[in-house]
Amino acid sequence: MSTKKVALVTGSTSGIGLGIAKKFASEGINIILNGFGDAAAIETIRADLAKTHGVEVRYNGADMSKPDEIAAMIQSIESEFGAVDIIVNNAGIQHVQPVEDFPIEKWNAILAINLSGSFHTIHHALPKMKAKSWGRIINIASAHALVASPFKSAYVAAKHGIAGLTKTVALETATFGITMNAICPGYVWTPLVEKQIPDTAKARGITEEQVINDVLLHSQPTKKFVTIEQVAALAYFLASEDAASITGAIIPIDGGWTAQ
Ligand code: NAD
């Protein structure tokens, strides 16, 4: 069995999750990739990470909206590696529409993936973490865990929920060598942000360029997108020994957005 730590990064076939998986692998951590996408493309990512960094990299395609698949994923990681040392709850989706028109299936999917999926990974992985007296749980929340924006009712509700889950589990695990924190990025240029631009333009009656400058970057005093690498570096710090006293924290990385 490998002596390296093992990290499950949900939703790591794209965007922020993939950036975190790359950073952790580069620091010698074994990785479980998760998320959707083209099977051959995912296999290329998996093989490249393993070869470049000399770590074990597995892929598990569990659908984070399905509790049974999450339970089976945690069990399979534990049977191969003993325990999940680090969980990064990152998988997430977005939908932008006024609340009265918001499709119920979108509400249910966002709550399931962006909030309940994190409960299920923690619920199943915690006993083995506690037995090892070491663990790191890092939730990729959002500035929307702290403030709202119109037309994102499900996303904002789920992300505020993640903040509450983070504080609660941090208290329950504080004496077990386990920390749980939430990272709250502002806008990061990823497929999730790119895809919401046309719907935001429609909901607000403005152009897509106006969405980028007057809505997205308007929120961030730095007038810059946060980068995937900056979020990954913060996640790695929270996974390190130096961060052992940081728990239950809701940490913005948002170019000053939530300081306003
Ligand atoms: P992305 O669309 O690039 O990546 C999302 C990942 O989640 C993909 O790997 C996708 O396959 C996976 N995923 C989606 N549904 C899934 C499911 N049912 N089961 C398993 N995996 C699933 O998006 P991103 O911007 O990298 O977002 C990652 C996280 O960061 C999300 O939780 C998002 O809310 C959060 N976030 C993003 C931003 C931003 O500006 N991009 C800002 C704040 C927070």
Strand order of the largest sheet: 3-2-1-4-5-6-7
Question: If helices are DSSP runs of H or I spanning 4 or more residues, what is the number of helices?
Answer: 8
**What structural class do the secondary elements suggest?**
alpha/beta
What is the end-to-end distance?
49 Å
Fill in the CATH topology of the largest domain: Rossmann fold
The fraction of residues assigned to DSSP E strands is 5-15%
Give every kind of bound small molecule, once each: nicotinamide-adenine-dinucleotide
CATH class of the largest domain: Alpha Beta
- Name the helicity range: 40-55%
Q: Estimate the mean pLDDT confidence.
A: 97
- How many β-strand stretches? 7
Name the CATH superfamily assignment of the largest domain.
NAD(P)-binding Rossmann-like Domain
Topology:
Elements: E1 6-9, H1 15-26, E2 30-33, H2 39-53, E3 57-59, H3 67-81, E4 86-89, H4 104-132, E5 135-140, H5 153-173, E6 178-185, H6 191-204, H7 208-219, H8 228-239, E7 250-253
Parallel strand pairs: 1-2, 1-4, 2-3, 4-5, 5-6, 6-7
Helix pairs in contact: 1-8, 3-4, 4-5, 6-7
The chain binds nicotinamide-adenine-dinucleotide.
